[in-house]
């Protein structure tokens, strides 16, 4: 494969157009996945045919697919599934079986299929829910860690597990022996592997990784960069091993998913994924939809009115009605929202349809029908979900009187982690919480953080905030306490005190002093720390929230400081 400058130009135009189309679709609140596919259709071999090295792009897209499945496994919350496994698994199972059954009937009646395996796989490809689309909508609207958000993701992942197992069984039936006994054994292998993989993921791997990490600890603990490298190495080795096993028993996607699941309970895994893989994985997944899927879509068949009409019928009956039926029957609240969250089709649907098309199990006409079903679901589901989320937000705002005087105090105690405070503040900003004050003080390898915030939008339960913080820190051994209190807020900096602590014991004085600030109803606003050659200078700006009794307040400050001189020079500047 040899390129030239014009190949470079064409590849650059293709990648830049992906960015432009995605931004345009996001601006109009349309699922960008559709834009990726349309971009691939236009630049691919069936329209302009401008992209060189098509096989290389398709191969990179395959990496993107593996990363998508890996991330699905990492995001799987075993604890939350365990608490709601009955309702989750039942909705997921019905959400697969009902669309599959009705799609079989509709395809048989409307399409006259001539290949049994193609007929079965086409119907089955309509069944899975897109966890990627659901995840994206929930993240953008800051609902991922809500009760119904976690329920949706749990159902979607269970849905995907069933779909991956089913796809592995189809693959075995298609490619292996014609003997009934061997086919039965091969059909059960993915199920056995899934049960064993789930057990190892829950009971064995998290503890084993932690034991491996202990070998690299010194007296000061383990540095985060070393921790990150060890976990990353073990993670990708296991993904390679599981993927290879999965390939030989049905599908490498099954193995890769359970590799991700095995690390879902390992400390810092979300942080490591974000630092090491996230950006690359995102681009490769875009290439998957743009090149691997977009290049293969027969554009002429897509404009067949009969294919479009049949696609709409299957989408309405199998895509919408079947998916929302189970939540309506089994849930007490958020029925419509959960139902339409499950309507979206994405990664696995495209994978199975493309597999059937590449293996000549279905022709251009049937492939175009499936593409219309998937594209319509990917287009409509996010629009409906965003509308329903707005209704939920309006209801929550009516139910909760957003009092300007309500302050949430978050106290975090435990081991210090690299960039810890920045990660926490980023999470709080994402959920629309205004940070009023934040302070961190360290004792060796331990740290304490006190953050006070005010919600700018709807209230978020303390348990959800706690879960987000633990995920951001990547260490579930941290003690997180969250309290809500009433406190009058004065925006003007008209009453403040500046402390400057100098001396060998300055940091100790500062730490002890900060622990008692909340007793006096004080809020640290700015902390500036500078290490000099001989001494340490710490400056802290404090603003009083309540305007009354300022003199008494200053007197209490002086009393606190008088107890802690300890070889320190303390300058107290008062700005009334």
From TrEMBL:
Pfam families: Na_H_Exchanger
Assigned GO CC terms: membrane
Record-annotated Cation/H+ exchanger transmembrane domain positions: 16-388
GO BP terms, alphabetized: proton transmembrane transport; sodium ion transport
Localisation per UniProt entry: Membrane
Membrane topology: Multi-pass membrane protein
Keyword Ion transport: yes
InterPro entries reported in the protein's UniProt record: Cation/H_exchanger_TM, Na+/solute_symporter_sf
A GO MF term: antiporter activity
Parts of the chain that traverse the membrane: 26-44, 56-78, 90-110, 150-174, 180-202, 248-268, 280-301, 307-330, 337-357, 369-389
Keywords: Antiport, Ion transport, Membrane, Sodium, Sodium transport, Transmembrane, Transmembrane helix, Transport
PANTHER family: NAPA-TYPE SODIUM/HYDROGEN ANTIPORTER (PTHR43562), SODIUM ION_PROTON EXCHANGER (EUROFUNG) (PTHR43562:SF3)
Name of the protein this chain belongs to: Sodium/hydrogen exchanger family
Upper lineage: unclassified sequences, metagenomes, ecological metagenomes
């Amino acid at each position: 494969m040899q390129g030239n400058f014009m190949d470079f130009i064409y590849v650059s135009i293709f990648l830049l157009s992906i960015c432009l189309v995605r931004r345009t679709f996001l601006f109009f609140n349309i699922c960008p996945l559709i834009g990726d596919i349309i971009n691939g259709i236009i630049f691919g071999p069936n329209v302009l045919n401008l992209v060189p090295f098509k096989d290389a792009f398709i191969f990179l897209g395959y990496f993107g697919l593996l990363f998508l499945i890996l991330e699905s496994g990492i995001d799987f919350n075993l604890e939350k599934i365990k608490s709601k496994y009955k309702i989750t698994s039942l909705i997921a199972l019905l959400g697969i079986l009902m669309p599959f059954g009705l799609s079989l009937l509709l395809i048989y009646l409307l399409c006259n299929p001539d290949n049994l395996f193609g007929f079965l796989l086409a119907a089955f490809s309509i069944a899975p829910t897109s966890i990627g689309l659901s995840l994206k909508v929930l993240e953008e609207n800051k609902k991922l860690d809500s009760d119904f958000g976690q329920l949706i993701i749990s159902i979607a992942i269970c849905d995907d597990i069933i779909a991956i197992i089913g796809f592995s069984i189809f693959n075995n039936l298609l490619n292996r022996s014609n003997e009934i006994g061997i086919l039965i054994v091969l059909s059960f292998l993915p199920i056995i592997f899934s049960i064993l993989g789930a057990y190892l993921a829950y009971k064995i791997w998290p503890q084993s990784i932690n034991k491996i990490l202990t070998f690299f600890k010194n007296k000061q603990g383990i540095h985060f960069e070393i921790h990150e490298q060890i976990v990353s190495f073990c993670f990708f080795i296991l993904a390679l091993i599981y993927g290879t096993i999965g390939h030989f028993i049905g599908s490498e996607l099954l193995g890769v998913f359970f590799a991700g699941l095995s690390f879902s309970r390992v400390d810092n895994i979300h942080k490591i994924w974000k630092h090491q893989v996230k950006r690359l994985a995102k681009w490769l997944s875009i290439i998957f939809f743009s090149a691997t899927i977009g290049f293969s879509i027969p554009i002429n068949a897509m404009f067949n009115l009969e294919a479009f009409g049949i696609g709409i019928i299957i989408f309405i009956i199998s895509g919408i009605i079947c998916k929302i039926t189970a939540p309506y029957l089994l849930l007490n609240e958020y029925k419509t929202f959960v139902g339409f969250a499950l309507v979206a089709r994405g990664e696995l649907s495209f994978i199975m349809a493309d597999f059937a098309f590449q293996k000549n199990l279905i022709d251009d006409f049937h492939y175009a029908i499936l593409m219309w079903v998937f594209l319509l679901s990917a287009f409509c589901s996010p629009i409906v979900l965003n509308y329903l989320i707005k209704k939920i937000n309006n209801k929550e705002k009516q139910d909760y009187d957003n009092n300007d005087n309500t302050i949430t105090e978050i106290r975090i105690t435990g081991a210090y982690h690299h960039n810890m405070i920045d990660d926490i503040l980023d999470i709080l900003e994402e959920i629309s919480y205004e940070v009023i004050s934040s302070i961190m003080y360290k004792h060796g390898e331990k740290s304490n953080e006190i953050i006070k915030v005010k919600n700018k939008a709807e209230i978020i339960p303390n348990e959800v905030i706690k879960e987000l913080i633990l995920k951001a820190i990547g260490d579930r051994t941290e003690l997180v306490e969250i309290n809500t209190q009433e406190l009058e807020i004065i925006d003007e900096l008209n009453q403040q005190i500046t402390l400057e602590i100098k001396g060998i014991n300055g940091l100790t004085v500062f730490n002890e002093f900060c622990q008692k600030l909340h007793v006096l109803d004080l809020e640290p606003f700015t902390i500036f720390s500078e290490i000099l050659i001989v001494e340490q200078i710490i400056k802290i700006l404090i603003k009083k929230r309540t305007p009354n009794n300022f003199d008494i307040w200053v007197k209490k400050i002086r009393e606190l400081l008088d107890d802690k001189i300890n070889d320190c020079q303390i300058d107290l500047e008062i700005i009334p």
